Amino acid sequence: MKKPLLLSMVLMGITFPSVAADITVAAAASLTDAFKVIAADFEKQNPQTKVKLTFASSGTLLQQLRNGAPIDVLATADQQTMNDAQAQSLIIKASRKDFAANQLVLVTPANSRLVINALAGLNQAGVKRIAMGNPAHVPAGRYAQAALEQSKQWQGLQAKLIKAQNVRQALDYVARGETEVGFVFATDALAEKDKIKVAMTVPTPMPIHYPIAVSKTSKYSQEAQQFLNHVNSPAGKQVLRRHGFKI
């Protein structure tokens, strides 16, 4: 009787490569540039693991995870979204960790002559359109709303607000001159420094911290944790700093 093929190959000393793992990392849009570099570095160090990146507003990513999207790692731009994910048992609580911080800024096109030193300046006639992420699912939009409410400007500016699907879309509106100003993160402003300029740093009622966690439904939780560890490693932190994040 002939030996089964697999057994014969084992007896001949033929080895098999380890099975590759493909993990999906769902990250807030403001992490786009930094996470592309971090993922490439991670793959070089872990050639058997491939990283698929998906970027959107934090609220959109939460909805995708809730609806069964195959997400292994979730990184959001706010605590509220991650709190919701944890409350719905969508993440492994023990894996959750804050890894970066950011600031909210008000930006204008690079050639703008507007001078805005306080949020009350948004009421001037030269400001007709204000880009911001939709507060319903975009953390940058929620931070902007909170800042405007704190300064008593929110209600009076409603007619000027252009609500974007994510913070990068808000940034694009300003960079293309489609709005006179926009609320984005400091890291986003750095990414388009040739097309926009920062008018002011916006004080927010709460600090802006980014949490990351492994999804409970991940089929590759070990590799997902390895990616999370890499984000928090000295090399990962160096990339984040280079892209303007605070550690």
Give a structural overview:
- With 247 residues, this protein is of the alpha/beta class.
- Helices cover 35% and strands 23% of the residues.
- The strands form two sheets. It has a five-stranded mixed beta sheet with strand order 2-1-3-10-4. Strands 7-6-8-5-9 form a five-stranded mixed beta sheet, sandwiched between helices.
- The chain is elongated, with a radius of gyration of 22 Å.
List low-confidence stretches: 5-18
How many strands?
Answer: 10
Strand order of the largest sheet: 2-1-3-10-4
What's the Cα radius of gyration? 22 Å
Instruction: Please identify the structural class as seen in this structure.
Output: alpha/beta
Which descriptor suits the 3D outline?
Answer: elongated
| Tally of individual helices | 9
Q: Determine the fraction of residues in helical runs and give it as a percent range.
A: 25-40%
Amino- and carboxy-terminal Cα gap: 65 Å
Which features characterize this protein?
5-stranded mixed beta sheet; 9 helices; 35% helix; 23% strand; elongated
In short:
It contains nine helices and ten strands. It has helices at 5-11, 32-45, 58-66, 79-87, 139-150, 167-175, 186-191, 221-231, 234-242, and strands at 21-28, 49-56, 73-75, 97-102, 104-109, 130-133, 161-164, 181-185, 196-202, 208-214.
